[in-house]
Predict the 3D structure of the following.
Amino acid sequence: MRRSIATVSLSGSLVEKLSAAAAAGFDGVELFETDLISCPLRPAEIKRQADDLGLTIDLYQPFRDFEAVSAELLQRNLKRAEQKFAVMAALGAPMMLACSNARAEAIDDDALAAEHLHLLAERASRHGLSIAYEALAWGTHVDDYLHAWNLVRIADHPNLGICLDSFHILTKNTDPARIREIPGEKIFFLQLADAPGFAIDTLHFSRHYRCFPGQGGFDLTAFTEHVLAAGYRGPLSLEVFNDVFRQADADRTAVDAMRSLIILGDAVRQRLPVQTSLPELPAFSQPQGFAFAEISVDAHSEKIAQDLLARMGFTHTGKHKSKRVQLWEQGSARLLLNHSHPLTTDWARGDAAISVIGVEDPNSSRSAARARELLAPQAPRAVGVDEALLPAFTMPDGTDLFFCRTCEPQNWLADFDIVSSAAGQAGLTSIDHVALSPAADHFDETLLAYQATFGLELRPIEEFADPYGLLRSRAVTSEGFNLIFNVPVIGGADPKQSGVQHIAFSCSSIFQAAETFRANGVPLLPIPQNYYDDLSSRTGLTPATIARLREYGILYDKTSAGEFYQLYPTSLSRNIFFEVVQRIDGYDGFGAPNAPVRRAMQSSPS
Amino acid sequence: MRRSIATVSLSGSLVEKLSAAAAAGFDGVELFETDLISCPLRPAEIKRQADDLGLTIDLYQPFRDFEAVSAELLQRNLKRAEQKFAVMAALGAPMMLACSNARAEAIDDDALAAEHLHLLAERASRHGLSIAYEALAWGTHVDDYLHAWNLVRIADHPNLGICLDSFHILTKNTDPARIREIPGEKIFFLQLADAPGFAIDTLHFSRHYRCFPGQGGFDLTAFTEHVLAAGYRGPLSLEVFNDVFRQADADRTAVDAMRSLIILGDAVRQRLPVQTSLPELPAFSQPQGFAFAEISVDAHSEKIAQDLLARMGFTHTGKHKSKRVQLWEQGSARLLLNHSHPLTTDWARGDAAISVIGVEDPNSSRSAARARELLAPQAPRAVGVDEALLPAFTMPDGTDLFFCRTCEPQNWLADFDIVSSAAGQAGLTSIDHVALSPAADHFDETLLAYQATFGLELRPIEEFADPYGLLRSRAVTSEGFNLIFNVPVIGGADPKQSGVQHIAFSCSSIFQAAETFRANGVPLLPIPQNYYDDLSSRTGLTPATIARLREYGILYDKTSAGEFYQLYPTSLSRNIFFEVVQRIDGYDGFGAPNAPVRRAMQSSPS
């Protein structure tokens, strides 16, 4: 199927928007009228630009408040339509989107509305053009797609069909399954947009918070399946009004949009019994945990990290054959300290940053093919003679993902000369999770990219208060492989609260870890006494347990699934810290209720 | 009346929050529990800090999900309460806020709820403490204040009263007038928050979008009047959860909050028949238009401005006696080009900025007293011997306001040596409006400050698309004195779309102005031909009129009140441009529908 994007979904001048859409591989665009009116190029010149870029102009939109009006207004509206038809002819745009009348003076008369739509379609047909009629969720009398379809049916003109917009349909909780009742050839156009999972006045929501499929809360797979099952074969087109996209780099947004359509298309393909022309993505493989996490360091942070890791019971076990990279191990937790990788991730502004995540991947070549289809750029990386050739891709937040099979003989570990063997003194066993911090504007894009690459479970959004602003947090997980992404809710640039990353290690006993840390002189984050007073007031923990937690500054959380303990060495740098966690029973969260306390203490002057 | 603010409304550590509240003149605070738990100071130390700052801790909050529970849970909740009472005793906090139970397992039984509240109040009374019970808008069974009051009435304990929160009451459209039925002595606490005028899921709305009174859409004057009429004499307290405030400078937010309470208090005082202890603000005076607008320039932009103004028909009429400031006049439009004022406003990042607005003020000394009461800092300004001493204040966006009486003999004009007399060649008559650009996070604060200083009318928010992002625009106006404030909807730092200011001049004939400009070689902003095609399709303008508009690049708007013409010389600098407007009949807008076209052309590479 062809893929389109509305010009309103991208930032910049019309020429910039067209270039970005073409570069990301879109086949066509919906041309938003304001973009045309604000453009110094005449319609014929715009057509030439689109032609040169290999783009079609699939839809001219929107044409508003046409139908169900007085005879006098109808004449004015027809005059307006004729002028738009002339523009469309010059543009080479075959179809015009007519939205249901949203004015107060619209007449509540289906027969009249249908008569007017017939007239509009008849006029359009004389120019070889078509009309796609769409029910706006806030249309005065026509506000759902079944009503719109009924009018199209009554109007009965070959050049008149309906346009289905997932936003208008799903935001009203209308049942999308009845789309299957509409003959596919009468579905003239399909506009796709997702939206976040909170309710809001529909018009405001529509104009500001739409997002690309997979980045919000709508079930667009089922929706699109209904439309294709009805027989629609026109383009899948993204019409997304979003405050961030309006000011983001258009080239980047277009790639983000295309990735979203590829993922959606693959999901729909798997559910559709009928033959469609949707391309197939290579299947994902389930990650088997973390092979390693790499921290880029400079001379200063390298020294601090070495000292801290040694005290935490890690052993410096390996030295990279060709690069200034150290391997540190404890249990199966592996960390690389890389002194030769520039600090270039999205958010990097400190002296240390998580630059690479090694994924234990049972089928790395298939994962690599999938990542490539998902438009992930290959990570630039110097590989020495005889060194392991790992598939490696740069994710939207700037972190590189390496697909590893550590158990194989010729694996990435062979690139390291053995320095000593691991001891595992503090009982840390593996990496439990890694928390990254994309730029606020790249949050949804980043999550979708990671989630789709490995078919991870997308957890609900959590928000918690940092002393200097609210943070939004969302995890993508699978068994033994957890990633957390944190961003400021307001994309401010306050360095006090942006860009903090961490690596959490599992342990078999939090108290053993705490005692070893104390014996080794690991500086621990102080936790307020007030926290433990509150903990004792709201939990059933015994005074003795509270006292032990208090002694080491261990944080505690409990859900119906199990218990959770958290211990924090003081931060490695302003941007990175380590965490040690112990999970009891089925606890599968990350201690979100404790985050405000932890953040307050991490940001308090020591 | 005493004034308080919830610590959750301010950013930073608890100590920073207390300092900011004290510095802004608050009498007390509501202590938010998370702020306590995250604070390394023990409760008694926090009390000492507050004492030293002259602050009382008026309320400890929130205590959640206490009432209408099973017998077993009740015991656990009482244990929790006792521990909090101990904390409150150490804090010296006399009152605890108990929110209506919001858990699914809360029992729907008013008698039981009242019995539990009685028990809680009885326990509190043994410590000399009180309970203020508040209906959360999302409480499971108790979600409006009349229901909460009924429970308090049934529970009938002297240490139990209700807390009224404007947010929870007004967001549900509950009638606040029935507050008058509650005996004043049973209203234990009053929390004030405003909220913007769009609907949204209440919980989300509550946690993110509250704002200070006068910055949103609630009628808090009437609300507060009801509460005071009922006999409440406790503190007016601001409890505002807002994403921006969480990360803004706490000292600044506290001043913004205090200003809002001062304005609210004055408005309530004017409507209350009964004697209250609310302080009285000096009355505002109606501005009589603009005395002048001053642009700070550097050597480069000064030259460009001089050339542009001369071509636009302005005359260089005066030279300041002691500073490098030029006066330019046409009609009663007066501009100052100031080469000795640093470019220091909020947003200034270019080579020119609007730095001062001179207001024609019939009672400038009274206005000055009012501005001082509204916490406006006096503008630092060197005044030479014999020069006019104008009251001058710095507004939150960094612009200085000068209060002028140009008609008086010893007015500000006398500070200028006459260079030549004005000619008024292009028929420009006065300054119609000035558009400023505060930092996005200071938008509400800035609007309220300007609005309150001169009792201006606050127009609705408008939003329009800039090619590189959405802009939010709001005007404050009175007859002949219009200010517009523009900010990016997302407070991004993209210099392409932030910080643009302009000065618009009225004229008696837009075509005369355009012809004069052309004759004088004023470079005019090109307007796309597509704009005029669209204009002809949607208006009744004759082809001849369209052709004239097209010839000069004049933009057009029409409402039921009248017509509007706009003409744009090309920008003076990246941050400033001029506009010429003509208003026909009662048109009182600013041409918002044309803004996207204008912005697109201004930001297109020329």
Notes: Chain B touches chain A through 63 residues (CB under 8 Å). The domain at 290-603 of chain B is CATH 3.10.180.10 (2,3-Dihydroxybiphenyl 1,2-Dioxygenase; domain 1).
